[in-house]
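Lab notebook, bench 4. Still working through the backlog of constructs that have no structural model yet. Next entry is a single chain of 476 residues. Request: give me the structure tokens for it.
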Amino acid sequence: MATLVWLRHELRTFDNPLFDKAIGYNEPIYACYLITPSQWQCQHHSPRRNQYVYQRLIALRQELRELNIPLVVINADDYAQTSSVLSQLCLSLSIKQVIVGEEYGVWERQRDAKVECQLREHNIHSEWLTTQVFFKPGSIVSAAKQQPYKVFTPFANAWRQRLSREGAHPSAAVALATPIADINQGLNDAQLHQLAEGPSDWPVSEATVLAHLGHFIKNIVSTYQQHRDYPNLPATSRLSPALAHGIFSPAQAVSLLQREYADQCFDPKTGPGCWLNELIWREFYIHLLAQFDSISYGVAFKPTTRAIQWDNHADYLTAWQQGKTGIPIVDAGMRQLNAIGWMHNRVRMICASFLCKNLWLDWRLGERYFMEQLIDGHLAANNGGWQWSASTGTDAAPYFRVFNPVSQSQKFDPEGAYIRRWVEELASLAGKAIHQPSEHDCVRLGYPTPIVDLKSSRKRAIEQFAAQTRQTTHEH
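Model written out:
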């Protein structure tokens, strides 16, 4: 008899509750990862993200071999096939129990309920643990009403209070498991290498990722609050792909942060506290995903915004996607996204605000395009960020607060270095002209003039939101 660890969003050996639990059974351990290409396509996962997963699986297989744990990578194509593929694997390996980390989207929860049911029919025990977030979704609720928090600040306060009571206690690497022969099932190393082929600037070895995390916390996080909004500075962690796939855990990050900056990490006005706040935003959005199905279904979180009539302007969408809007900071961000599958967070907000508020296009179009490009795409965080920008989400930016991309650019890329890097046509422009080139410069340099007027489009967005709010209030 043996134990199977089914890996999804916890591709690590350190601080992995699944392996910690499995070791307790004192039996040989297998790990498995199910690749679901059709499902990934249906959920708009980017090719870069899939490649990153394959590259991580190659590294993880070697890391687990050293712990006597074979990693089986097997194709289930989509969620409909998952339960039968997993059951067959369990029967072929004489599995007695399966240990799994919870996932929170509607489709994932439906798949897991079916898996649990089918395993039970084969007398295979399953355990479902919290691995993606620090605290289990549903465990942080308002004291007065025992309801999920829909506003970030009280959630963050409750989250911090609980952290201060309970602390962060990541476990070490899993102990050596009972030796077991490697098995000839699923994808072999050569097949995985073929899927993972291609360049990557993102580290996938656990040791490298943890060293990067340690370096960021020791050397960069102290100035994070002052510098994080400047896209040309190396001031952010760039750890989001590793965190999205669980190469390190939130507990590992928080534990290092507390050890290094015990007196600062609860104050969001400090660098360490500001970075902790970003981790809490991630937790907040995952908690919401687990508790509100509307997020999985792509429905606006705020009921008052569900009837908004967005424009259907395909040319605008294409210009935005290609980074050819005539707004340099927006175009720089979109070109960075298209080139490397990642975009600086401040610029993500600028690009999202521009799509929804200036182009008056449905936020779901932007959400989908980001998922199709991002290496760190995650439904909860991506949806949360987009609905925040569109003023349709929980605790979203008020509808009358519309980013002016030119003033954002002047403030956070004052020398224009970020724009020059990604919008090569404008590289020769000196001084402030880089933020808002003249029509003459645009023609001369082969750069598009702005596809919308920022002032009038902003005014229109505010009027549309105000009218929708009045109408909804009147109806109720």
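Notes after review: The first helix runs from residue 17 to 23. The chain is about 50% helix and 5% strand. Flag for follow-up if needed.
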